[in-house]
Specification:
The complex is a heterodimer of chains A (185) and B (421). Chain A has 185 residues and is of the alpha+beta class. Chain A contains four helices and nine strands. In chain A, 30% of the residues lie in helices and 21% in strands. Chain A is elongated. Chain B has 17 helices and two strands. Classes of the chains: A alpha+beta (185), B mainly alpha (421).
Chain lengths: 185, 421
């Protein structure tokens, strides 16, 4: 109200005030956007560096792994579980009503060859490494893996069955280079 | 207070150009302090002392420490065995963290008892909470630096909390790590931030003191000072009282440093970090146990999965305290005059201790049940019980001034005598 009265009385001055308001806002906006853009390199520098990313493939020779044996390999500084599953373990993983699972996924969707189960050995709850790689480890009620931190239990397909974890053990990208060699990543 | 006339010409010359001596005299010597402060008021300056001690030991430790995942563990062992007085500096720094938290927690619970968060001290309270949060971040990152098993797996579990955030959680965790797991980039940035944050804390402590000296100190009666007869100058009365308390505190602190230096520690942290093997039982340092108990107590709530709900509850347990000056809208500050609040105050203290006990144990069976009850009570206390008490409680009558209960009628009588004269 006051400004319209003012611009009526002093037209030129009113226009000047509007222009200054615009310039003030525009300067503020450019300054804010500029600061945000300048901050980006600082923030993004904390993401994985090129040398960290360059180490993101691992090749594994499967020939020495016996049926029933589980080995752990390191990929991107994380443990990867490679399990040479027995007939019983494959059957147990298949004979599950997928609908009943917390994170529904068929066993066939988690493997390329049924005898080889390959997954990241990190509990999806808070990142501990589950037990079960050695025959003497506790493996939980479903004979898969058991996380000692907060008691999550995984079946022989690495699917979450009990405990606080929200999801199945992750299956990384991998490819069979030959019948007995895989490349993870 | 009249402007001090400095007699020393050098002091006078400086003070006229930068009134640093005048400001110091105002805030550390003449600062009018309620004359009825108890020993519970020692823990503010004690916390300040611990901060300085942590920075001093930390600066010299950083001269010997190597922030590299291949070298960190050995460099800490070198500090313990080869560096001159390295064992002493590290044990002071390590146990100093615990005693810093002891001092700060007592300081906070003193504030809760005597209503120090109420108007006009809301900002003072907020700044204190910000200091607490910064301390927690600093302590967590410092614990990672020795690169033992507990360092590594504590860092893994706590950084994984952020993966609970919907959609962007995974990206945030990768960003925090600088890789695909806790590794050398994580250790490097934690060292950088562990060195930075204490100085940020120092700056917030300065604001905390500024706000304190604006609103002035609360006191055990929780009533305002009514004039010079209710106060005494900070120096020498409270400098002496603070120094005496500091002597007692240091006896306990250094007793631990010299005779039980690993009392608060976990033996697993003297094992080099191994990314492929998780220890059987991961526990945080004692000062995080109540929060850890809350984190693990929460089940699925409606559409929120347990993991996210636990994280929200844990962070809320501190953020809820920012609203306390308005949740507790009773005008009476000190619990001495609040017959109902006094009782729930002690219940809250017990509740926090129970949460700490639960946090140290695995979340199974009875521990899980107790953890859930204690967590529920924690939030019930702040959100329901405290406001209801503020509404329905009938406080006891307040004394008319600080002098009245201290000197009986004497102060008033002598004041009247003086009027007559």
């Amino acid at each position: 109200m006051a400004s319209s009265a003012q611009s009526g009385a002093h037209g030129a001055q009113g226009a000047g005030v509007n222009r200054r308001d615009f310039l003030y806002l525009a300067t503020g906006a450019v300054g804010a956007i500029g600061t945000a853009i300048a901050a980006w390199p600082f923030i993004y520098s904390m993401n994985p560096a090129a040398d960290v990313l360059a180490l993101s493939t691992t090749e594994v020779d499967l020939a020495p792994v016996q049926t029933g044996q589980r080995i752990t390999v390191k990929w991107r500084s994380q443990p990867v579980f490679v399990a040479h599953r027995t007939e019983d373990e494959i059957k147990a993983a298949d004979d599950v009503n997928v609908e009943e699972l917390r994170d529904p996924q068929a066993d066939s969707a988690r493997v390329k060859k049924p005898e080889w189960l390959i997954m990241v050995g990190i509990c999806t709850h808070l990142g501990c490494v589950p037990l079960g790689q050695r025959p003497t480890d506790p493996r939980g009620d479903w004979k898969g893996w058991f996380c000692p931190c907060h008691g999550s239990q995984y079946d022989t397909s690495g699917r979450i069955r009990k405990g606080p974890a929200p999801a199945n053990l992750a299956v990384p990208q991998y490819a069979f280079l030959t019948d007995t060699t895989i490349r993870i990543g | 207070m009249s402007e001090p006339a400095w007699t020393n010409p050098a002091v006078k010359w400086i003070d006229e150009r930068l009134p640093i001596f005048t400001v110091m005299r105002h805030s550390a010597i003449e600062y009018p302090t309620p004359k009825n402060l108890s020993y519970w008021w020692n823990f503010g300056s004690l916390s300040g002392f611990m901060l300085v001690l942590m920075i001093a030991t930390g600066v010299v430790l950083a001269m010997q420490y190597t922030p590299n995942s291949a070298l960190a563990f050995d460099s800490v062992e070198r500090i313990m065995r080869d560096v001159n007085y390295g064992w002493l500096l590290r044990y002071i720094h390590m146990n100093g963290a615990s005693f810093f938290f002891i001092a700060v927690y007592i300081h906070i619970f003193r504030g809760l008892y005597y209503g120090s968060y109420k108007t006009p001290r809301e900002l003072l309270w907020w700044l204190g909470l910000i200091i607490l949060i910064l301390m927690m971040a600093t302590a967590f990152m410092g614990y990672v630096l020795p690169w033992g098993q507990m360092s590594f797996w504590g860092a893994t579990v706590i950084t994984n909390l952020f993966s609970a955030i919907p959609l962007v959680g995974k990206h945030i965790v990768t960003w925090l790590w600088g890789g695909f797991a806790v590794d050398n980039p994580t250790l490097n940035r934690f060292f950088s931030l562990h060195y930075l944050l204490p100085f940020v804390i120092f700056a917030v402590v300065f604001l905390h003191l500024w706000a304190l000296h604006t609103a002035k100190s609360n006191n055990p009666l929780g009533i305002d000072t009514k004039g010079p007869q209710d106060t005494i100058p900070f120096h020498p009365y409270y400098t002496v009282k603070d120094l005496f308390g500091m002597g007692v505190f240091l006896i306990v602190f250094l007793g631990i440093v010299f005779f039980a230096p690993n009392f608060f520690g976990e033996p697993d942290n003297y094992i080099l970090a191994n990314p492929l093997s998780t220890p059987q039982h991961i526990v945080p340092e004692w000062y995080f146990l109540p929060y850890y108990a809350i984190l693990r107590a929460v089940p699925n709530i409606l559409f929120i999965p347990a993991k996210l709900a636990g994280v929200i509850a844990m962070f809320s347990s501190i953020f809820i305290l920012f609203a306390l000056p308005w949740l507790d809208f009773s005008r009476v500050r000190s619990a001495r005059f609040r017959p109902l609040y006094k009782w729930v105050y002690w219940l809250m203290l017990i509740d926090v201790l129970v949460l700490g006990y639960v946090g140290a144990n695995p979340p199974e069976g009875l521990y899980l049940v107790i953890g859930r009850v204690a967590t529920s009570y924690y939030f019930l206390h702040w959100l329901v019980i405290v406001p209801l008490i503020a509404l329905f409680e009938r406080p006891k009558p307040l004394p008319t001034s600080i002098s009245t209960p201290v000197l009986g009628g004497a102060a008033v009588a002598s004041a009247k005598t003086m009027e007559k004269v």
